Task: inverse folding
């Protein structure tokens, strides 16, 4: 299998590149290095992965590149992931997350790709009324980031109906793990771990009782691999653990000193996704639990 991964120098993308190589795929990476890091690809490049520095919003460039590479599988992870920036600069967010998706989708269609996977997000559900949230829950984003990903999902469905392209959106919960950048819009687990290691306090915004569903990057990547090998599965699936953990519980488990911070716009109070559909459709489930993975007091983390 020949695969192309956009955003492949990023946190999740680079892990996916490694996993695809382990799976025997020929892997091409596209990244503009606005947030991705070359060191994330060091091992992949040594193993023969090919790197293309390019902007996914440039449709002509994407068509030329994919026409040359001719991938069977396109995994689209290039994105603007900062929720705060999406609220402050909605046009820039939409350009990356909507226009970028449309451009790479069109290129995938023209080059004859057979499978297209999108890294989507729990943010498409907005502030859900059901927890854990199933895929049948209405899509009602409250942030620009969530709105952009919801729009990208609609374009995937349109491409499937119009062109016959096999597409699937993977709605990921809060992914954490190695290579996550704590200086950017990183997950709270990575930010808190780095702060504790440096002997610094952590800032907990909005009271810290907000809950999230924390899924390890190994598990998230496993969902992409399972989806790559099940092209008949289309639409959208949650990638999550189904477990709800508060920000304060994470800080307590790590033994962090907490400083209070203000509420942040666009942030929801509770988020936890129902992963059962992915098990039925892909045979995938998360195997890493946050309570076992965190340092400190594991009993402070919800089971």
Result:
């Amino acid at each position: 299998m020949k695969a192309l991964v956009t955003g492949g120098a990023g946190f999740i993308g680079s892990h996916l590149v490694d996993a695809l190589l382990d799976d025997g795929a020929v892997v091409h990476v596209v990244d503009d290095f606005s947030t991705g890091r070359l060191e994330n690809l060091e091992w992949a490049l040594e193993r023969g992965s090919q790197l293309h520095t390019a902007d996914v919003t440039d449709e002509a460039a994407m068509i030329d590149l994919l026409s040359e590479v001719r991938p069977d599988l396109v995994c689209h992870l290039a994105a603007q992931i900062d929720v705060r920036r999406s609220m402050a600069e909605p046009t820039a967010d939409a350009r990356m997350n909507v226009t970028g998706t449309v451009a790479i989708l069109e290129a995938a269609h023209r080059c004859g790709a057979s499978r297209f996977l999108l890294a989507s997000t729990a943010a498409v559900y907005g502030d859900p009324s059901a927890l854990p949230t199933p895929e049948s829950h209405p899509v009602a984003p409250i942030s620009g980031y969530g709105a952009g990903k919801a729009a990208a999902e609609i374009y995937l469905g349109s491409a499937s109906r119009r062109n016959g392209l096999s597409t699937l959106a993977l709605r990921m919960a809060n992914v954490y793990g190695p290579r996550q950048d704590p200086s950017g819009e990183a997950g709270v687990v990575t930010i808190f771990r780095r702060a504790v290691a440096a002997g610094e306090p952590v800032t907990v915004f909005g009271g810290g009782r907000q809950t999230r569903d924390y899924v390890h990057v190994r598990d998230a990547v496993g969902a992409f691999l399972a989806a790559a090998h099940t092209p008949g599965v289309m639409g959208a699936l949650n990638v999550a653990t189904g477990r709800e953990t508060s920000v304060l519980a994470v800080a307590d488990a790590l033994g962090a000193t907490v400083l209070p911070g203000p509420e942040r716009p666009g942030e929801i109070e509770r988020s936890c996704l129902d992963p059962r559909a992915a098990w039925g459709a892909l045979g995938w489930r998360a195997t890493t639990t946050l309570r076992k993975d965190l340092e400190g007091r594991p009993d402070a983390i919800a089971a």
User: Anything to note?
Assistant: The chain has two domains: 2-174+216-239, 177-213+242-272+287-300. The chain has a mean pLDDT of 93. The longest strand covers residues 115-121.
